[in-house]
Structures are given as structure tokens and as C-alpha cells.
Design a protein that fits this description.
Layout lengths: L1 E6 L5 H12 L3 E5 L6 H13 L5 E5 L14 E5 L1 H9 E2 L2 E2 L3 H17 L3 E7 L10 H20 L2 E6 L2 E7 L1
Parallel strand pairs: 1-7, 1-8, 2-3, 2-4, 4-7
Antiparallel strand pairs: 5-6, 8-9
Helix pairs in contact: 3-4, 4-5
């Protein structure tokens, strides 16, 4: 089962995803994809650690390679978040990698592989589609790749929820 929860920055999507997975499952893994590099990342990571304190999550930090995690068929994974996962794979210290379309396909394939190896995957994604275009070639390519990934996940997801100002709206429910 795949549940996709997305929304704007600070929309409450992460908190909602944590509540939703906790409502249905006791055995749950928090798959953290943010790289701990810099003060901003450290503050976000600390916020999320405090937010899920006492909720029974086992945390795995993996910014790129999610398909080979040590998991069981009865695990339920909260992947936090899709934007970081894609970004970590598309960019390196030199900028955007040239094979961005293949990398985007590989990230999607890795998510499907992960789903096939566990009970459920709850994916948190950002709605960046109102971001102004033509700021840079790299940003436009990133948005296109994220949109492609977003669309593919919606197609295969069992449930899709948009969170706006902390309020969930079902977009797809099977």
C-alpha cells in the first residue's frame, strides 16, 4: 500500500502523516531523507525528532539509497520526504547531474521496490508547483522531475491526501 501526503511548506503534512500511520500501525519506521548539512537542516531535523518523540517510530536516516534498507514485510514506512530524496539524488557538489531523467525514474523504481518489501509506505511530498519558473535552468528541471515523480506516485498510490493549513483533503482513495 502507498499513501501519498503532500502540501505546501509548513502546511502540517508531516504531522498529519505521522498521525495517520500511527493510527493504523504500531510497527513503523521513519525514513529520514534530509541530509544533516548546515544549521537549517539541523533545526528541521531537531523539529521533526521532537515532533515524533514518543510515537514509537524507529528512525532510519538514508538520504539516497532507499531500496536496499534492512526492513521486513510487516514494516510500515513513513518516507520523509520525496523532495529531499529526489534532490539528494539529482544534485551533487557540482550541481545538477546530466542524467536527471534516468535518476528520476530510478527514484520512482526504488520507491516501488521499497513498497514491495514492506507492508506500507506513507510518502510525504511538497507542493512546489506554484514556484516561479525561469529562475534558473536547474530549478526548472528539478520542478519538472519532481512533477513527473509526483504524477507517477499518484498513479500507483492507494490513497492521496493534500494537506492545506493542517487540514487533510482526500484526492484519491481506493
Amino acid at each position: 500500500m502507498i499513501v501519498y501526503i503532500y502540501g505546501g511548506v509548513s502546511s502540517g503534512k508531516s504531522e498529519y502523516a505521522e498521525e495517520l500511520i500511527s493510527k493504523y500501525f504500531n510497527k513503523k519506521i521513519y525514513l529520514a531523507t534530509m541530509e544533516n548539512s548546515g544549521e537549517y537542516a539541523s533545526k528541521r531535523i531537531e523539529k521533526h525528532l521532537l515532533q515524533r518523540d514518543g510515537k514509537g517510530f524507529f528512525t532510519i536516516e538514508e538520504p539516497r539509497y532507499i531500496k536496499d534498507l534492512n526492513i521486513d514485510l510487516d514494516d510500515n514506512i513513513l518516507l520523509e520526504d520525496l523532495t529531499n530524496l529526489l534532490s539528494n539524488n539529482l544534485f551533487n557538489e557540482y550541481g545538477l547531474k546530466n542524467n536527471f531523467k534516468e535518476i528520476t525514474e530510478e527514484v520512482f523504481s526504488d520507491i516501488i521496490t521499497l513498497k514491495d518489501r514492506c507492508n506500507s509506505v506513507f510518502i510525504v511530498g511538497n507542493d512546489i508547483f506554484s514556484t516561479e519558473r525561469n529562475q534558473s535552468k536547474e530549478l526548472d528541471i528539478f520542478i519538472d522531475c519532481l512533477y513527473s515523480l509526483h504524477t507517477k506516485i499518484i498513479e500507483v498510490a492507494d490513497r492521496v491526501i493534500e494537506v492545506v493549513y493542517g487540514l487533510p483533503y482526500d484526492k484519491k482513495f481506493i
